[in-house]
Amino acid sequence: MTYRTSEIRKSMPLLPIGTVIQLTDLTARQIRYYEEQGLICPHRTEGNQRMFSLNDVDLLLEIKDLLEQGLNIAGIKKVFEMKKEAKLERKLDKELSEEKIRSILREEMKIAQSRSQKPSLRYADVTRYYQ
After folding, report:
1. How many CA atoms lie within 13 A of 112 on its CB side?
2. Which CATH class is domain 1-70?
3. 66 vs 119, higher pLDDT
4. CA 6, 33, 87, 43 torsion-angle sign
């Protein structure tokens, strides 16, 4: 199973609030409050029932841990914001790195073509890294 498939499965809304209450030892009121504060955003069914993913449960457990460590809701929001920014930066760094690699490979291909030589890497070998 690839990382992408695993992440998709973890984000599928499958659990009703009653199950989440049992898994997290939080009350329905606490869960609704965290939703009101924008800390979680469970999926809603056509009947407006909240359905939670495994990622939502992990997030609720993280909120619970941070509260037990003494953070308030504003502090938790700040922690989540910082994590989101760090994740975005890592994604941008990765994209920039991949773009740099592609640029180098394009230049190598141009040089090889101008010399009527084969490039040192085959196209098939390179493209498998970008699928």
Report:
1. 13
2. mainly alpha
3. 66
4. positive
Contacts of 64 (CB under 8 A, 6+ apart): 24, 25, 26
Compute the average pLDDT of residues 2-15.
83
pLDDT digits (tens, 9 = 90+) for 73-88: 999 999 999 988 888 8
- Whether pTM > 0.85 for this model: the answer is no
For the beta carbon of residue 123, count every other beta carbon within 10 angstroms. Answer: 10
The closest of 87, 49, 80, 52 to 66, measured between CA atoms, is 80
Mapped onto helix, strand or coil, the DSSP state of residue 15 is strand
H/E element, 51: strand 50-52
Specify the residue for token string 């619970």.
64
* Distant-in-sequence, close-in-space partners of 16: CB < 8 Å, separation ≥ 6: 49, 50, 51, 52
Confidence of residue 130 (pLDDT cuts 50, 70, 90): low
Q: Would you list the domain boundaries of the chain?
A: 1-70, 84-131
What whole-number distance in Å separates Cα of residue 86 and Cα of residue 109?
35
